[in-house]
Specification:
This protein is α+β, with helices and mostly antiparallel strands. A hairpin with a 2-residue loop joins strand 3 and strand 4. The longest helix is centred in the middle third of the chain and has 28 residues. The two termini are 18 Å apart. The C terminus is likely disordered.
Length: 287
Amino acid sequence: MLEFAYRSTGAFEPVFHSHPFYEVYYFHEGKCNYLIGDRIYNLAPGDLILMYGMTLHCPKIDPSVPYIRSIIHFEPAILRFYTDLPQAAPILQPFEQFKNHRLCLRGEDKEEAERILLRMHGHQARGDQVGAGRLLLAFADLLHFVYDRCLSSLSEKREFPSDKERAVQDIIELLERKYTDDELDMDSLQRELHLSKSYLAKIFKEVTGATIFEYVYRKRVNEAKILFLLQPDLAVTEVSFRLGFKHLAHFSRLFKQQVGMTPERYKRQLRIDRSGLPETGAWHEFV
């Protein structure tokens, strides 16, 4: 499966969504905050985002200016004709290693990316078998371009050299799934991971420099900030309970520690300087 929308301008309802395929998103122009998982990217023209798919993501745009983006959805299997060749570059490695990643393309890099997208559009417009084949080849060229510009970042990513660090990665993956569970505690982590509570606490602190629940609370507060931005009508109490806090006072105290202001004040500040980001819009297939 390969779906390509070139310079799409459709409006949409801003909701978090995910999908089981990979995505390449290129931002041409407009005003947009792109929310991916617990990250908020303030986009500029030339930004290209790789998305692994299953991470929840949502663009939040200002409808007073044109929002123009090119989006490619694809299943990795369509590239097997190339990736299985001897000496083939591992062009899917950035998706597999980073999961989600932004490239800020400027100058000649921006021009080259836009030339490839335009060429893909021309092939797609043919609407025949030859056009489809050349579209796929041009897309493979785009992925080579992206891989080339990810090489330095890829080399900086280190493998997990020890059982201890692999175990910490398992803890993090579990926390990413369970962080809103109001029953999350060290006993449940011990049952899930089949490692003692004391060992889990010890290795997590050694590898990350933070405790397990410092990580959980940081994740929850980051998610709260995203909810306040994306759904400004949500009450602070509702956000607190959604994110696994049993007591509003606990949530408010942690939020103020991390953000420097109470959640109520943060919501008020967003209304003042949210840069005109909208609260509603019409849904479009390619967001």
